[in-house]
Every structure is written in structure tokens, then in C-alpha cells.
Amino acid sequence: MHQAQSSILTNISRRQWLQWLAATGLGGTSLAGQAALAIAAWPVSEQLFGLGVASGEPASDSVVLWTRLLPSPQLPLLAPQSVQWEIAHDAQFQHIVQKGEAPATPGWGHSVHVLARGLAPDRWYHYRFHSNGQTSAVGRTRTTPADGAPVQRMRLVFASCQRWEHGYYAAWRHARADDPDLVVFLGDYIYEYASPKANATDAKTQALLSELARLQPLPYPRSLQDYRDRYALHKSDPDLQAMHAHCPWVMTWDDHEVENDYAGPDGVGNATAFAAKRLAAYQAFYENMPLRAAVAAKADAPVSSALRHMQVYRRFSWGNLADLMVLDARQYRDIQACRTPGEKSNGAVNAANCPDLARNARSFLGWEQERWLAENLENNSASRPSSKRWSVICQQTLFAPRHYPNGRTSTDSWDGYPAARQRLIRAIDQAALRNTVLLGGDIHQNYVCRIDNPEAEGRAPRVVASEFCGTSITSHSGTTQARVDAVVARNPHVLFARCDERGYGLCDITPTLWTTQLRAVDDPLRPDSGARTLARFAVEDRVAGPQLA
């Protein structure tokens, strides 16, 4: 798939960028008493590798190496380019273990996805790219321990939701200092919204501007090139680039990679137009993420074909320590309860007025993915000699129920698919796993919860899993702590909930203990912000449910 439209990043010169700043009234100015809107923090790079490097999809013998070439007036990249790659034991590349050549074509946004094979298990490597006389930054990556190999420790960062305007990416700088083995990103890597007009005079927009850290000139995306530009914007951030270069990432998506609250084939507006838009967004996601080519095996399928064309749900193993099942909660789900196709989501409904909410036939993951997940859980039953200590379900949003004081039910989270949630709880319970932990994001709030199975055959609900739902890297929560506290008061399985912090989750995993630190930045409006540990919880081996550590 190829778009003739030129990239904004290609066509906007530094002079034009400054002219845009002046036209918006923000070139060198500040809003009195308000947060500085540092639009100029987006560099229009003329470096071929200006979007950085990344790695992902780690296995015991392979890893994906990624980069995307950035066009410039000096090198417009109108034809396929040859990119050389190297992977070595050392950052100086004195001991190169593999090297090769890969194409970067206009039809795939000049992205490069190298599957480096034949690597040794459980070790770190360094990698880089060369093309047209330029050399990329050096990235660091690693392979996983061999399946079943004894592992004593794993450090994992999980994060989501990094809206550009809502803050700087200082959280990534601190996550890098925490030196994880792996980053699991749970969705909303980009946001499709356009920035408000900086020169607006109405009070509502001025109040909104006061809460923003920076603006950007990109329009609401509709085409493949629009989505490509949106990724280039986010990837221009130096802290995000440095985190990608530090260790491998495992990626999944949520809604804003396409459109807010979309559900499977259902978006806002004309169905055919949305299908084309979704296909463009999916291709841009693949182009900009360190994913295996098999994930996008059908990404060039015609719009009229079946819409299941990106294999985003998948499984990763970390020796005998952990099984990570990464889910896709957007591509296959049924439309939200009582939502009219083509219209926006209701957000929340009164259950008494929405019988569709409780319908058993509705799925959050799609039936094929539900079966896949149940089979993987069963295969990791504690009764099996090959089972892993920790079964980790990496998914997009809060899994535990939230009963609100106003009696309404959220329709876009698992609350909106109660039968599907109970099927997964039942699958976890019946699989008799040694330990189960769910990781989530999406809601821009920190939640720590017990997962109970209410189907306890006349007994009290049984705790079957632990949940850590992380806040956003930058995105606003849209609620108040008083409202969150009122929710906690009505939901005894919620052990901790905060909406007023931005940050990420840091997990240290050993055979006998899982520890999660909820890390928070001091001020997301400052690129040099400090960070702190907001709370620390632990899960003991064979003891379901988090405990304050």
C-alpha cells in the first residue's frame, strides 16, 4: 500500500516550522500563569535515522530489529533503499555476530523489520543500521532464556497512553534508569486528536491550554500518511527513543492507534470509510513497531476482505519463570452494548435500560482469541511439569469490576462485557495455575485489585488472580480523586486506586515473589521531572491477591 501524499515531516522546513509557531502566536511567547507550550520541542530532523531504533518480539534465539528511514529535502527517498544492519556482543562492534541487508520501501513507509536469528539465549546484544552514508544510534537488546530454563529474576516495565500534548516523556527517562529486561506496552502509543488552536480566546479552550505541555500541527488522521506522520511526531521525542534503544519491547494496541472507542469493524461514520481508515492505521502501526513480519501477513489485503488481518495476540516465555500472553482487545470485540453502529460510544449505560449488556454471546476478545487464551492457560496448569511460575495476562484495560455510586456501567472496558469477563475468570480458575497476574492500562489511573471468582458454588468468592492496572505515561485521567475514592468504597476487591499521577509500572519477578512498584513523575509538564515510587505491592508464590509491600 502506497500513498502519494508527502509527509509533513518531509515538507516542513525549519523556517516553515518557525513560521507556523509565529502564526499560532506561540513562537517564543508564553501564556501568563499557564504551562509553557513548547511546540518547538518537535524537531524536524534531517537525519535519515532521526526516528531512532527499536527491538522487540524477543525469543530465545531471535529478536526483531527496527528502524524507519526519515525522508528529507536532501534525500527524499522516492525509491526503495538498501539498509545494512549489524548485531554484536559489544557496543563498539568489535565482536559482530551477525550482519545483513534489508530493503526499506516507500510502500511500507521505509520501515525495516529485521528478524535476527541464530542468537544465544538469555544474553544482551547491541545493534545498529547503516544507509546512504549515515549510521543509526546504537541499540541494546536481548534474547529470552530458553523455554524451561531456570530463571531467578526478571525485571519488566509496563506502560500505556502517551498523548503528546498532555506531557513530556520524562517517565521513559526514569524507566530507562530502572534498567528493565523488557517493556510491555499496552496500547495508545499515539493519539489521533488534533491540538486545540493556541490563539483561541474562549475560556474553555484557554483552560484546556493551561493543562497542556506542548502542541503539534498535525490534523486528525484519515490516511496512511496521516498516521505515519503521527508516529513520526511521537518517535521524535528523545526520551522515548532512548527507551526503545535500551531494551526489547512487546507491543499491543488499544483504540487511539485508530480512533477513540472503536470496536472491531465499528467506528464513527460511514462503515466503508472507517474500514479504509482502520486498515491504514493498522499498517502504520506495523510500520512503526518492532514486530515480526508475520503479524502483518495480511496487512495489504483489500479493504473489502475480512477485517481480521493483524495477528497481535501472541505468547512469550521467559524460561521457567513466566508466560506472557499479550492480548488484542480491539480488533475482534463486539460493539459496545446499546451503541448505534456509526455513532459514538455511549461511554456508560444504566444496566436496567440496556439488556444487551449481559448477553452471553458478546465477546471482548473475539471467540477465536478467547479459545486461544483458555488453551494457553490450561497448558500452563501447575499440575504440568513444564508449567511456568507466573502466568501473565497483558491486556489493555482494567479487568476487575467497578461498581459506581451512580449505578451506571462503563461500556468500553471489561465492565461492558461481563459474560466475557466471567468466562476468562472461569478459565483462570479451572486451569489451576500456580500464579496469575493481569497487567492493564487505558484508564489513566493506577488500580491494584484482587480478582475474585464469584462462582464459588455456595462458598465465599475465591481469589484467583492479582491485577495491576497502570496509569498513563502522560494522558489525563478525566476524573477526580474524590470520585475514585467513592468507587473504592463500593468495591472491596480494589486495594489501591489513584487518578492524579502519571507514570508506569515496574515489576520485579522471582520464583517466589512478584513485586510491583507504581512509579509516578513529579510533574508531567516538565521534561526534567523527577520521579518517585507511589506504592509498592507484592504477590507471594501460590498466594493469589496483591499485598501492600
Which overall shape is indicated by the principal axes computed on the Cα atoms?
Answer: globular
Task: State the strand order across the main sheet.
Answer: 11-10-9-21-22-23-24
**Percent of residues in helical segments?**
10-25%
Strands, count = 24
Poorly predicted residue ranges = 1-44, 299-308
Distance between the termini: 51 Å
Alpha-carbon Rg, integer: 23 Å
Strand count, sense and closure of the main sheet? 7 strands, mixed
Strand content: 15-25%
State mean pLDDT (0 to 100 scale): 90
Helix count, DSSP H or I runs of 4 or more residues: 10
Q: What would you note in describing this structure?
A:
This protein is α+β, with helices and mostly antiparallel strands and 549 residues long. Helix content is 19%, strand content 25%. It is built from 10 helices and 24 strands. The chain has helices spanning 8-11, 14-23, 170-177, 203-209, 224-235, 238-246, 271-288, 367-379, 418-431, 481-490; strands spanning 53-56, 63-68, 81-88, 96-104, 111-116, 124-131, 134-135, 139-142, 154-159, 182-185, 249-251, 314-318, 322-326, 348-350, 390-394, 408-410, 436-440, 446-453, 462-469, 494-498, 503-509, 513-521, 531-540, 547-548. The chain has a 7-stranded mixed sheet, covered by helices on one side. A 7-stranded mixed sheet has the order 12-13-15-17-19-18-20. Helix 5 packs parallel to helix 7 and helix 8 packs parallel to helix 9. The longest helix has 18 residues, at 271-288. It starts with 7 loop residues before the first helix and ends with a strand. The relative contact order is 0.12.
